[in-house]
Every structure is written in C-alpha cells, then in structure tokens.
Design a protein that fits this description.
Elements lengths: L21 E5 L3 H8 L2 H21 L4 H7 L1 H24 L1 E5 L2 E6 L5 E6 L5 E6 L5 E6 L8 H4 L14 E5 L2 H16 L4 H7 L3 H4 L1
Antiparallel strand pairs: 1-2, 2-3, 3-4, 5-6, 6-7
C-alpha cells in the first residue's frame, strides 16, 4: 500500500458530497520549490563565496596554491551536501502534496513526515494573491479571516513568506498559475459572490513584493 492509497479520491480526505465536483488538481514543481521556497541558489552562492574566500586568504598569507585550494574543498563539499538535502526535501514535498480546487472549496494535502489535509471553504477565503516567477512557476496565496487561522509552521513551505502573525496558505510553485488564479477567482465569485473582479485582479501582483 502506498502512503495515500487510503484516500477515496486522490488529494481529498473523503468522498465529494453530492453537487460538488473537482475543477482542478495540481502539485508543486520540486525544482521551483527548491529555488523559491528553500533558496538553494542563494545557499550554493554562499558556500561558493566561502570557498573563494578560503582560496584568497590562503594565497594572501603566502601559502602554496595547492593548500589554498585544499582549504576550499570542505565548504564546497558542505555546500553540495546541503543543496542535495534541500533538493531531496523539495522532491518529497512534491511527491506528498496535491492541491485541489472544487466548486466549493480549496483542499491542500501535504506533509512529508505528518500527512495532513487542509480544507478551505470558499466562504473562508477573503482574497487571492498571485506571483509568477521567471521560471514560469506561480504562487497563489489565500488570505483567511483572523479567527481560526492556521499555524505558519504547520503550513511551511506552503505558506506565504513572512506572514507569521496572519499565515496565508499558498498553492506554491504550480504550473499554469494565471489560468488557475482566474479559475479560482471566478469560482469564488460564483459560489459566494463576495469578491470584486477588479479588486482581485489588483491582488494578483501583491506576492511579487513579498518574494
């Protein structure tokens, strides 16, 4: 038995009630997660600079070039191991995560060590924010009411960055994000009739400043 074989429908903790249907399902890209959520490029650059500093310091002190290069081996090795671990974790997140949009709610199933599912009824979603990265992956953050909010650490890395006091679940690093954003906003409008089209259109750019 695989880890999610218990699900009656992939990504959902139970069967859909009568009158509810799935509009979209998707999973995050592990490569995009590694870059945008786990910041492997910045980490790799840090260890590379550390290695270059070791070489420069060794040469400046008058030591042989071979010794200076040898001193740079450990930060390079440590950096490679760190990046590999983070990339492996991103792959596990992709493997265990599935986003679902139905006609009545958004469901996020995730969790590498502790699988969990978060049900977000449309009536609990106050706004939708959008960010498109240069690699084509997109983030959709869902603003929720202050009461009954979710814990940031429980959501991470599927939480909008830096929103610790008022965490926002995020459909992070998905493909075709613009189409999914339009689908979600239109579904919210049809279901609850609260969101104004122009208001949410403006919100599509809000995540860019947070990244």
């Amino acid at each position: 038995m695989r880890e999610h074989d218990y699900e009656p429908i992939p990504g959902l903790p139970g069967s859909l009630p009568e009158g509810e249907s799935i509009l979209w399902q998707g999973a995050p890209s592990w490569r995009a997660l590694a870059v945008h959520a786990l910041h492997v490029r910045a980490i790799a650059a840090y260890f590379l600079l550390l290695a270059l500093w070791q070489i420069a310091a060794g040469l400046y002190d008058g030591g042989p070039a071979t010794a200076a290069v040898a001193a740079a081996v450990w930060p390079l090795g440590l950096g490679a191991a760190t990046v590999a671990l983070l990339a492996g974790y991103a792959w596990l997140v992709q493997r265990t995560t599935l986003y679902t949009i139905t006609t009545k709610r958004v469901v996020m199933r995730f969790g590498v060590a502790l699988p969990m599912a978060v049900n977000l009824p449309f009536k609990a979603i106050e706004s939708v924010s959008f960010c498109e990265h240069r690699d084509g992956s997109c983030d959709l953050a869902l603003a929720l009411p202050a009461r009954g909010r979710l814990a940031y650490l429980a959501l991470w890395p599927l939480a909008r960055p830096w929103r610790f006091s008022h965490p926002e679940p995020m459909l992070r690093c998905i493909g075709g994000g613009r189409e999914v954003a339009v689908l979600l906003i239109q579904s919210l409008q049809q279901a609850v009739g609260r969101l104004q089209p122009m208001e949410d259109e403006r919100r599509l750019g809000q995540l860019a400043a947070a990244e």
